[in-house]
Amino acid sequence: MRPKDPDRERLDGRAHRDSTRAEVEPVELVCPRPVHRPIMLQGWHNLASIHWPFDPGVVQRILPPGLTVDVCDGQAWVGLIPFHMRRIRLPGLPALGAWSSFPETNVRTYVVAPDGRRAVWFCSLDVTRIVPAAVARVAYGLPYCWADMSITHHGRDVIEYTTGRRWPHPGPRSRVVIEVGARLDDDALGGVERFVTARWALASTFAGRGVWANVDHGQWPLHRARLVECEDSLVAAAGLPRPQGDPVVLWSPGVEVRIGRPHLLRRELVESTERDPTDRQVGGGDPRDTEAHTASAGSERLDTVVGRLDAPDPPGPTGAAFEGGDLEAEGDAHRRHDLPAGAQFQGAALHRRAPNRWAPPWPRGRVDE
């Protein structure tokens, strides 16, 4: 009898898994799964999109089992997205005035489900309205935080977004200033720009299970933008290293959004992924430039990520100045990091401290448009 070859068996097993794994869906600029019966309506307006490349293995560590980091050009992408949420409401009901419109800033990355669907994964979402945050947390298991925020226009093309988190972990903050440029046609969009904007679902966890909801909106009207200033610690507070390299910066006047009801990811798909956590295939952005990447699955649970709510489980371009830092013990020296040529990074250590004293539950946000 021919002796067994362990290496041959391992390769044969991997080939079988690859043949049965669902193909990653293509990136499409038009919604492939329209939401005909939404459970929530909202507008995402005056939106800045700032994305940095990250090592896929680093991002994979903050994801729950069953989801794989999505990559484009061999990199994972992490976005800092400040915008103006407008008229959030339930279908058939009116918006609740000022309580339905407020600034929001989220830190996000991009994932692939075991069945090949692409989605957004939110590392944190800061808003000035605690009621909508609680509703979204209960319905979708999203890690909402309460913050002071503002959106200010300086002249015609320069916009400043500020965020200062108040709860549950006060301290992380963000201030970005962008200069809006020319409108982009579809043909002018690069692979990364398509990859980060053509997202038609959100992923989360609830009661230890993967949750998925389809998102439907018109095609993004996109403008090029330049990052003028960036002082941010929200990315570090999400459990990620400080951003390195040139960001991809876009701006949009916005879209109206329809969000479908959440669904549980099929348990058998998640379990099959967990059985082989070191052999996951993820696809790139532009269908013409899609590539495979094998990333190590993360063993950290979602509730270890700094910046999520404290609750039981379930849940720059050349010449720009970037200031930020992670949560460090008091007394740590400021450190200088490499950035693109001409850019400056100033480490500003943020210190852990006890929560602020009681604060009233009404919002503290300002939008100057």
Strands, count: 18
Counting DSSP H or I runs of 4 or more residues, the number of helices is 6
Mean pLDDT: 75
Structural class: mainly beta
Task: Give the full name of the CATH homologous superfamily.
Answer: Acetoacetate decarboxylase-like
User: What is the percentage of strand-forming residues?
Assistant: 35-45%
Poorly predicted residue ranges: 4-20, 272-363
Order of helices and strands: HEHEEEEHEEEHEEEHEEHEEEEE
Helix content, binned percent: 10-25%
Distance between the termini: 78 Å
**For the report, how would you describe the main beta sheet?**
16 strands, mixed
Oligomer: single chain
Tell me what the CATH architecture is: Beta Barrel
What coarse outline follows from CA principal-axis ratios? globular
The CATH topology label is Acetoacetate decarboxylase-like
Rg over CA atoms, rounded to whole Å, is: 21 Å
How many separate domains? 1
CATH class: Mainly Beta
Written description of the protein model:
With 369 residues, the protein is mostly beta strands. The chain is 14% helix and 38% strand. It is built from 6 helices and 18 strands. It has a 16-stranded mixed beta sheet that branches. Strands 14-15 form a two-stranded antiparallel sheet.
Task: Present the secondary structure layout.
Elements: H1 6-20, E1 40-54, H2 56-60, E2 68-69, E3 76-89, E4 102-112, E5 118-127, H3 130-140, E6 144-154, E7 158-167, E8 173-183, H4 191-197, E9 201-206, E10 209-217, E11 223-232, H5 234-237, E12 248-259, E13 263-264, H6 267-274, E14 281-282, E15 293-294, E16 321-324, E17 344-347, E18 365-368
Parallel strand pairs: 5-6, 5-9, 6-18, 11-16, 16-17
Antiparallel strand pairs: 1-3, 1-12, 2-4, 3-4, 4-5, 6-7, 7-8, 8-11, 9-10, 10-12, 10-13, 11-12, 14-15
